[in-house]
Specification:
Layout: H1 2-19, H2 23-29, H3 34-62, H4 64-83, H5 88-102, H6 105-115, H7 121-150, H8 154-173, H9 194-203, H10 208-227, H11 230-238, H12 245-271, H13 273-293, H14 297-325, H15 331-360, H16 364-375
Helix pairs in contact: 1-7, 1-8, 2-3, 3-4, 3-5, 3-6, 3-15, 4-5, 4-6, 4-8, 6-15, 7-8, 7-12, 7-14, 10-14, 10-15, 10-16, 12-13, 12-14, 13-14, 13-16
Length: 389
């Protein structure tokens, strides 16, 4: 069933990234200010982080398959609204609805965890991340092609058609994840709520699940938050322009895909998830620091190589461990909460990074982010207690 799920995730990401690069152009054509464009871009992430725990709890009770199918149908409706949006408010509503539909990412990860043997979960989660990254590479080019061929409405209609197509494909071929559940941790129905899990994560840092969620939160903010502002550093230090920045981003994304698909599985077998997550933290921190110090291409190459290797090790290993330390009946909920915390950090870090750039220089946010990532290392040193898997 995992290949089917990977196809669903890939095509869904293609549809999403088809329209994201076009959003600023559509908005400015409607007379929207730069601030308004920023709100449109952020609306997706805010909606996604708010609903992710709700989707997770829904999938724990009603099944992963219904949640995934419902998310795809919601997303298709949002793309159609985007295609024919004639005002700023229509665009904003479409982005919010897209975020609601996209909140099922934690459900997809929980499905992978349900359908995979415990010792292979991190590798499978890495493959999931790799195929979604490939979708993110293909989507923008496909969207531009549709615009050139069919005009302004074509990308939204095309994205909606893809979402409906993959929903139909999933309905026919995707089995319910509970068919793979053979362990005792699924037998006792959960009474937890998303509010209870969020509160527990905030107040009980020492618990295994909380430590993993906080490690993920800080690390994903440190990486994705600074990558959003890396063009400013490259422009100031190396004279990189909008005509060449794409090559640097492609290298980052390509390196991550290669490591996740070809190297991650062997490293999990060699080191185990806990030690691999620690190695990932160290490599990410070194990569961020090297990028912050970079004043020539050689140093930048080191930073841009270490960062994607570190994240390719760290994020699947942390999520894999989280799937082990929580009962199966709460897995979707906890993974949804993890994405909520990560989403908040991905909103906060770029804002803080921009302020630090203005106050202290373009390299400072990357060095600070590296220090913060390294500060999560103690959270990974204590052994986790595993419930039945």
């Amino acid at each position: 069933m995992l290949p089917v799920l990977f196809v669903v995730a890939f095509v869904d990401m293609v549809g999403l990234t088809m329209i994201v690069p076009l959003l600023p152009y559509y908005a400015t054509d409607l007379g929207v200010s730069a601030t308004g464009v920023g709100v449109l871009i952020s609306a997706f992430s805010v909606a996604q982080l708010l609903v992710a725990p709700v989707w997770g709890r829904f999938s724990d009770h009603r099944g992963r398959r219904p949640a995934i199918l419902a998310g795809l149908l919601v997303t298709a409706g949002a793309y159609l609204l985007f295609a024919f949006a004639g005002s700023y408010w229509a665009l904003l509503i479409s982005r919010v609805v897209q975020g609601v539909g996209g909140g099922t990412i934690g459900v997809v990860q929980a499905y992978v965890a349900d359908a995979t043997e415990p010792e292979k979960r991190t590798q499978s989660l890495g493959w999931l991340s790799a195929v979604t990254s490939l979708g993110a590479v293909a989507g923008p080019a496909f969207g531009s092609l549709l615009t050139a061929v069919g005009g302004r409405h074509a990308p939204g209609i095309g994205a909606a058609a893809l979402a409906l197509l993959v929903a139909a494909f999933a309905r026919v071929t995707l089995r319910e994840a509970r068919e793979f559940r053979h362990s005792a941790s699924f037998q006792v129905p959960s009474t937890l709520t998303s509010r209870a899990v969020i509160r527990r994560t905030l107040l009980h840092w020492g618990e295994p699940a909380s430590r993993l969620i906080w490690t993920y939160t800080v690390a994903i903010g440190a990486f994705y938050g600074t990558i959003m502002i890396v063009p400013l550093l490259l422009s100031a230090r190396l004279g990189v322009t909008e005509h060449t920045i794409g090559y640097f981003v492609m290298y980052l994304g390509g390196m991550g895909v290669i490591v996740r698909s070809l190297v991650l599985g062997r490293m999990v077998g060699l080191l185990g998830e806990a030690r691999l997550s620690r190695l990932g933290i160290v490599l990410l921190a070194l990569g961020l620091a090297a990028t912050g110090w970079a004043d020539h291409l050689a140093t930048l190459f080191i930073g841009f190589t270490l960062m994607p290797i570190g994240t390719a090790f760290l994020f699947p290993a942390v999520t894999g461990q989280l799937s082990h330390v929580v009962p199966g009946s709460d897995r979707g909920l906890y993974m949804g909460v993890q994405h909520t915390f990560g989403g908040v950090s991905r909103v906060v870090f770029p804002i803080a990074g921009g302020a630090m750039m203005e106050a202290w220089g373009v390299g400072v946010p990357f060095i600070v982010a590296g220090v913060l990532a390294l500060a999560t290392l103690p959270l990974t040193l204590r052994p986790a207690t595993k419930p039945p898997q």
